[in-house]
Structures are given as structure tokens and as C-alpha cells.
Amino acid sequence: MQLEVGCEFTYRADVATHAVFLVEPRFDLGPRALNEQWTTTPRVGMSRYVDGYGNMCRRSTLSSGLSSWRYSATIEVRDDADPEDIDAWEVAPGELPDGALVYTLPSRFCPVQELADEAWRLFGSATPGWRRVQAICDWVHSEITFGYLKTAPLATAADVLASRSGVCRDFAHLAVTFCRAVNIPARYAFGYLPDIGVPPTSDPMDFCAWMEVYLGGRWWTFDPRNNARRVGRTLIARGRDALDVAMVSTYGGPELVDMTVWADKVGSS
Predict the structure, then answer these.
(1) Fewer C-beta within 10 Å: the chain N or C terminus?
(2) Strand 218-222 relative to strand 145-146: parallel, antiparallel, unpaired?
(3) Domains and their CATH numbers in the chain
(4) How many angstroms separate the CA atoms of 118 and 45, rounded?
């Protein structure tokens, strides 16, 4: 299946400001790029590097005044939904691979110790493995109200639990924290998510955040915001939490004037 994905940012800056963009799909994990294009106005140079989590980043400098940055791509992805295995088991901490251990620890937006008692109270008696993780997603999906501007940009999972509201980033942070608190490795992820096989919505498209959980010797996708196996999910980046994988990091204070995101099946109306 082919998708058209991309985004465009418009900034206003008082002075030239360096920035890092993290909006390109990870093509080392299955999707294939058929074509890609960066367009900037005014035209400026860009360089790229791979960060410590394997994510593709672009560096450039915003010009003073108004500037726009547009990434677009046609990609080829699987046409089935996120894989699942309800019998996937939890791996004991002593048997986890070295690379998974960091995803059991607290991070800036995921204060594991602070929510550990609540996590064990809510999910300690759940069936270990896939069913426990699904129970966490079910709880977060049903107990947290989705809405833009309902939480602060620097809200932690503890703040989200207290307010019972947030955006997909906040749903992911809370579910990640609950998983880590019961010794299940979990990492934050975000990317493009087309509206395939779901009811149409009039809301503008945005980036989507979810989590990846280590069960049965591999990583699996779980989406506490949508709480469904989805078609066309395309990973951009993963890390400990949203702090590791900001879409745009600026070394200064430019104003974000506008942002547009799209992810559509080629040929769909």
C-alpha cells in the first residue's frame, strides 16, 4: 500500500535560529521510500544525522523573518494492521536484553517511582504479558479525556493522571509509565497515522504518539489514545519519552505560526 505523508511548519524568527527537524519516517524498519522531498522558503542548506535511538534528524537554520519547511514523501507500507499476539509473555527483568533495560527506568515525563504504587494497585492482579499491557491501555483510553490545550507542554504522566486529560503524547506517557512501573519495558514512539478503516473525522490531521512494549522477546505497538490495531501506522521516531524525540528543536525562541500534517492512502478521496 502506498501513502502520501508529510508536514509543513511556518516560523517567524527575530534572528537566524538553528533547528533540528525529526519528521522523516524510519525506513530501516519496513516502510520503503518511493520519493522524498524537502522544500524550504527561503532556500537554505540542510544536513542530516542519525541520533542515539536510530532516528533520522535534519539540521538547518531558520532565517530571520518568516520561513517555511515542508517535507513530503510517497512511501510503501504493509496493508495490514499492527501485529498482535495475545499470548506474548512478560520477560523477567533478569532475562531482559541489555538494550531494553533503559526502558524500565524513569525519564523526564515518565516518573515511574511516583506512580508505582498506583500501577501495582490497578494492574498488579492483571494477567501478566499482553493482557496486562492491554489492560493498561484500556484504562488509560477510558479514564483520560482527549483534548488539545488540556495539559501543559511539560506535563508529566503524574500530571496527566491528576488532570485526567491530555493529547496522544500524554496518553502514551501515562501508559509507558504504568508499564515500566510493573517492570515491563516500554518506549515512547510517534509518527504518521492515516485514517484507514476508521470513521472519518473533521479534525485536522496531526502527528500521533503511541508506545512500544517489549514482550515475548520482541517489541510490539500499543496505542492507548486510539486503543486499536491500525493500518498504515508509520514510525518516525522512538525514545524514552517525548523529550528525546521532539518534532522540531530550536536553539532560540522563534514563533510557530502554522503547522500542517498529512498521511493519506494514495488514491483515496
Answers:
(1) C
(2) unpaired
(3) 2-79+247-265 (2.60.40.2250), 93-230 (3.10.620.30)
(4) 49
